[in-house]
Amino acid sequence: MHKTASPGTVSFFGTCLADAAFPGAGMAAIRILEHLGLDVVYPLEQGCCGQPAYNSGFPGEARKVALRQIEAFAGQSGPIVVPSGSCAGMLKLHYPKLFEGHPRYFEVLAFSGRVFEFFDFIGRELGACFEDRGPSVTVAWHSSCHAMRETGSTQAAKAILRGLANVELKEITREYECCGFGGTFSVKRPEVSAAMVRDKVADIAATGASMVLSADCGCLLNITGAAAKMGQSFTGMHLAEFLWGRIHA
Amino acid sequence: MHNDPHFDFTASLEKALADPQLGENFKNAMTGLRGKRLAIFPDADELAKLRATGKAVKARALSKLPELLVRLEANCVKNGIRVHWAQTGEEANAMILDILRAHGATRLVKGKSMASEETGLNHYLEKHDVEALETDLGEFIIQLDGETPSHIIVPAVHKNKKQVAETFHRHLPGAPYTEDVQELNAMARKTLREKFRTAHAGLSGVNFAVAETGTLVLVENEGNGRMCTHVPPVHIALMGIDKVVENLSDLPPLLRLLTGSATGQLMTTYLNCITSPRREGEKDGPKEVHLVLLDNGRTRLFADPQLSAGLRCIRCGACMNNCPVYVRVGGHAYGSVYPGPIGSVLTPQFEGIDAKGDLAGASSLCGACEEVCPVLIPLAEHLRRIRAEGQGCPDTCHVRGCGSKRTLAETLAWKAWAFLESNPWLRERLLRLAGLLGDRIPAVGPLKAWTSARTTPKLAPKSLRQLVREEGIRHE
User: Do A79 and A114 form a contact (C-beta atoms < 8 A)?
Assistant: First the structure.
């Protein structure tokens, strides 16, 4: 293993989806941070970032939940690392907008300034690279819209993926296009969302890759759920879980 | 015409999605336009600078909107252009009819004008025995079929060659059925030339109006627009008041952004700058030029510090070309003059949230629209704002029909969610309880729609919080 990380403490924001449905992704991300020499703290008072309410037209409820997150991380002062471009984008870019004119605006701003998307943190901030100990495999990569357009962390994730010696990365033709999850969008506009995810699944299947990797659990839930329904054989995994498997093997 | 009080967005989307030909036509056309846009702006830094300039130019114009409109009027009048102010679409239509009647005009040729779609002009004139013929090829095609544009730049993009062949064969007298594009073009040209020659008046839209010089600027590729503004004795230009810019020097960045974002062209085949009617000694041009300035709800947007950014829109359609929802359902599904992301923001403001607020839900907030908007309109933020207005959120309530989308069930659900997310201990216990049910979670309510296209999501046997505790990760 090569690393340039200096020892320190980071807080981990697991995301509600990783907590409930993809705990393996969250644990793997924590293990990678430890592997890079960092001390990881997981505040138990954390929950959802508040994005579902924020995007559904309920900013008051979103603020209430957001303040709970800010309080949960008040005990530490270092970076807050998030294994999701979507949740990281919410914490980093949307919290300040949500609290414009609010008495606690500057507290919120200080919190947002601490937030990093996971791969952006280990790739760009720490400059980490990894020794691949896994067998040969062909994978496709799906970028979440918010990792691509909000946190801009896609390049860091793909660079880490490309650095794995035994992994062949297949590009999908419409990487730029949303998979149709969009949180409550997939529930409120299921007809359009279904059309979008079916196209995404077909796109991934066309690469012939045996699995699709992403750094967002929401997209994975959507894509693998649709792939199973459509009888596709590829599986899905969070990149952190995949990466931990490769270096830990 | 679009103000259908019974508009059912869900039914409209389902109908569009059930038409595979439509989906295919759109996907192909929009992929083509997207590629052309990318090719014309190869340098990301240069594009970023250009967009910042475009935004600044439009923002500056909007910040001085009342002053610039008065200057525009004064300079137009000085140049011999007659200026009219219309508060509503109905007023604009009546003014246009008055001008036509003053000349005994019953045959009007039109260059593409979305503002006239907004006012329902064609239908209005028809009722008053004036033939209003669309001469933009795309508009010509859909007018024959009694349809409205499904895209603001490529109005007949929803039709393929075969469908156009059928339309011409059915509606043009003596036209044989042919799928030969050259022949189809020739048929349209033959019909339109005669109409241009015999029209009493021409109507066009306006892409930009320059206050400094009183110049009306129109971009087009077919020359039909120029036929409408130059051949008939009277030219009427209809423009939304948001189209005014301050100086001639504002034009180059805006034109480059407009044509590049819309069709991936460095510039259009024709660029018309109209400054006056025919002057003495000149051989062509209309004897009279009228400019109708249309408000139709724009001043309401102008007054809103956040949503007024929507008035920066230069109607390039790039947000549509890149929106994964628009690309799959096409413009007609939106039931509004302006479809796609910008339409989902503007239409609820023009027509009320009660009537068209649902449009704001037609987005996964993926941000693809913002990524391409040449004047940097924060479309996702505006969509969120319209959604919040629909719920009657007290700190943002300004748009007509605010609060009309609020339901007790959804309000309670979000309140319950906020309570649960504020009490992690309770949330964890409920999650464990739900986990015990495993796959037996019944697919009812929202989950039913979800599972129509996906397998039922499973909760993990142990949550991340449990694993953190068990595996000795520092927690507090």
Answer: yes
Three-point CA angle A158, A159, A165, nearest 5°: 100
Q: ipTM score of the complex?
A: 0.95
Interface A–B counts its CB contacts (< 8 A) at: 193
Partners of B372 on chain A (C-beta within 8 Å) are none
Mutate to test the interface with A, among B464, B466, B470, B476 (most CBs of A within 10 A): B464
Smallest CA–CA separation between B392 and chain A, in Å?
9
Span B92-104, pLDDT tens digits: 999 999 999 999 9
Q: pLDDT tens digits, residue range B194-232?
A: 999 999 999 999 999 999 999 999 999 999 999 999 999
Task: Inspect the interface and report whether the beta carbons of A20 and B460 lie closer than 8 Å.
Answer: yes
Structure tokens given for B450: 């979800």
For residues A245 and A249, give the distance between their C-alpha atoms in angstroms, rounded to a whole number. 6
Q: With an 8 Å Cβ cutoff, is A185 touching chain B?
A: yes
Please tell me which of the candidates B388, B418, B427 has its beta carbon nearest to residue A57: B388
* Greater pLDDT, A209 or B449: A209
What's A38's DSSP letter? E
Measured between CB atoms, which of A54, A61, A146 is closest to B415?
A61
Dihedral sign of CA atoms B333, B335, B339, B343 in order: negative
pLDDT tops 90 at residue B396: no
Q: Is the dihedral of CA B70, B72, B74, B80 positive or negative?
A: negative
pLDDT at residue A7, rounded to an integer: 62
DSSP state for residue A120 in the 8-state scheme: I
Average pLDDT of the residues of chain A: 95
* pLDDT at residue B186 greater than cutoff 60: yes
- The CA R_g of chain B, rounded to the nearest whole Å, is 26
CA–CA dist B231, B284 (Å, integer): 7
**pLDDT per position as a tens digit, B325-346:** 999 999 999 999 999 999 999 9
Q: Is the pLDDT of residue B5 over 70?
A: no
Global pTM value: 0.95
Closest CB from B324, B452, B462 relative to A194: B452
Q: Do the Cβ atoms of A64 and B473 come within 8 Å? A: no
**Which pLDDT score is estimated for B19?**
94
**CB distance from A178 to chain B under 8 Å?**
yes
